[in-house]
Design a protein that fits this description.
By secondary structure, the protein is an alpha/beta fold. It is built from ten helices and twelve strands. It has a domain at 6-158 and 190-220 and 266-281: NAD(P)-binding Rossmann-like Domain (Rossmann fold), CATH 3.40.50.720. α1 crosses α7 (191-206) and α6 packs across α10 (283-298). The longest helix has 22 residues, at 76-97. The structure holds NADP nicotinamide-adenine-dinucleotide phosphate.
């Protein structure tokens, strides 16, 4: 890095979004620095203050999160420490040093009972600990930082490592039975598309002070997990020259898990589209790429 560069701290730097952000096309002169938990633990307020004070990033992107939705049910304190307190620490450090802040949140702040895509002003009502901790994170960020941008996204797919599609295709390749829930609807979002949206938002923030905002930013089309799994398996089968195995639709009740999940957490991203001129591609446009990436990741 040189002194004239615009430094961007990407907290949670080893995660999927962070890796997509590191690989994203930032404007000339911007220097993204992805910093993982080992170097910067966001739950440690003093460490956050010290890191931000020393490196003085112009922008902090908070991609750090406790994302184990089921695990959070039994590790409530740990989930809140990262998703709520950690987000607050970054926001406070950003205010102290004059940095901009983009914080990433989730559709799981909603209970999924509304019956239409959620807009930013709809009431939140998380069903699980993860959603509650992320909601408190949003609140802490917005209380602390007058210019913060909060981006709620959903169902991140694509990129490398630990994705739903990778897990499904591994099972398909092993010839295991595929049973996937068909009664949860959301907006699958390509992680690299989300990274582009974050960069666009970062550029806007750099143009001058703007009041804090919360936006929904997710892929254009809704789907169930079953639809995604079936389409991914079919795309993989075409690539591999094999017959696609059946993907059985099941109800959430048939797949007991510690955390309850919203049945319909579709997000309406119209405000982001209007303000940034960017609509994130829907899953039908991305499914073949996701399947190809995941098949490649297996080899
Ligand atoms: N994935 C989705 O489907 C989805 C959907 C909606 C919203 N989101 C939101 O999108 C954002 C990015 O998610 P993602 O999918 O990229 O998650 P991810 O792959 O799980 O990455 C999160 C990263 O945060 C790190 N982290 C955890 N605790 C930390 C701490 N105390 N200090 C610093 N870093 C810490 C993790 O490190 P370790 O690996 O060491 O734990 C991990 O590398 C999150 O805010 C998430 O809530 C995700």
């Amino acid at each position: 890095m040189t002194s004239g560069e615009r430094r961007v701290l990407i907290a949670g730097g080893r995660g999927r979004l962070a890796r997509a952000l590191t690989a994203a096309a930032w404007p000339r002169g911007w220097a993204p620095v992805a910093v993982g938990r080992a170097e910067l633990d966001v739950t440690n307020a003093e460490a956050v203050t010290a890191w931000v004070g020393r490196h003085k990033p112009a922008l902090i992107v908070n991609a750090a999160a406790f994302t184990g939705v089921d695990l959070a049910e039994s590790e409530r304190a740990a989930a809140f420490a990262v998703n709520a307190a950690g987000a607050g620490h970054l926001a406070e450090a950003a205010v102290e040093t004059g940095a901009d802040l983009i914080h990433v949140s989730t559709d799981f702040v909603f209970d999924g009972q509304l019956g239409r895509p959620y807009v930013e002003t709809d009431a939140t009502a998380p069903l699980n600990v993860y959603g509650a901790s992320k909601l408190e994170g949003e609140q802490r960020v917005l209380e602390a930082h007058p210019r913060a941008l909060v981006l709620r996204t959903a169902w991140l797919l694509g990129g490398r490592g630990g994705s739903f599609i990778e897990a499904i295709l591994k099972r398909a390749a092993r010839g295991e039975a595929l049973r996937v829930v068909a009664d949860q609807v959301g907006n699958p979002t390509d992680v690299n598309d989300l990274a582009r949206a974050v960069v666009a938002a970062a550029e806007r923030l750099a143009q001058g002070p703007t009041p804090q905002r919360l936006y929904h930013v997710a892929g254009a089309d809704a789907a169930t997990w079953h639809q995604i799994a079936r389409a991914a398996v079919e795309a993989w089968a075409r690539l591999s020259g094999v017959t696609a195995p059946p993907v059985t639709a099941i109800a959430s009740n048939d797949w007991p898990s510690p955390a309850r999940r919203p049945q319909d957490s579709r997000l309406d991203s119209a405000a982001f589209a209007r303000d940034f001129g960017m609509v994130l591609p829907g899953w039908r446009e991305r499914i073949a790429d996701w399947a190809a990436e995941s098949a490649g990741a297996k080899r």
